[in-house]
Design goal:
By secondary structure, this protein is mostly helical. The protein is built from six helices and no strands. The chain folds into two domains: 1-94, no CATH class; 96-157, no CATH class. The longest helix has 27 residues, at 3-29.
Length: 157
């Protein structure tokens, strides 16, 4: 695999954590309004993406092709909004670390199913036993992150 692509993916993970923290602070500074903070986040992102799309040659043929797409292909926007709102709403309530490890666990398990079964019209990539072990290790890490202090406390009683 390409190291540069792996580093970019790692950077996306960094951005997700920073985004959740920044959006949480925005919500707190505007009266704990998670919905408006998510809306502002999406509006800023929309402006940036529109600028990049225009700089790359415009939107003409692409926008025309949108009319012929099945409705389910637009679910990404709703899911993205749910993700941003969820992080803004949950981070101050459960903590950023708990939020992110649970997001990662959800992403891993869902991605494994999508890859293995070729769901959502993605190419099927059979999940190997080594990858299953890797996911199990990460899920155990999530459990330790969330409940490790309680587990240790139960042994020291």
């Amino acid at each position: 695999m390409n190291l540069i692509l792996f580093l970019l993916a790692f950077g996306v993970g960094v951005a997700m954590s920073v985004q959740a923290a920044v959006n949480t602070q925005l919500a707190a500074s505007i009266g704990a309004n998670s919905v408006v903070a998510a809306l502002v986040s999406f509006a800023c992102g929309t402006v940036v993406l529109a600028g990049v799309a225009l700089a790359r040659g415009g939107l003409g043929p692409t926008v025309a092709a949108l009319a012929g797409q099945p409705l389910w292909k637009f679910a990404g926007g709703f899911l993205g909004a749910a993700f941003v709102f969820g992080t803004v709403f949950l981070a101050p309530r459960i903590g950023l670390l708990s939020l992110i490890v649970l997001v990662i666990a959800g992403q891993l398990l869902t991605s494994m199913a999508i890859d293995h079964f070729g769901l959502v019209q993605m190419a099927a990539r059979k999940v190997s036993p080594a990858r299953i072990i890797g996911v199990v290790v990460v899920v155990l890490g999530v459990a330790i992150t969330l409940f490790g202090e309680r587990i240790v406390a139960s042994f020291t009683r």
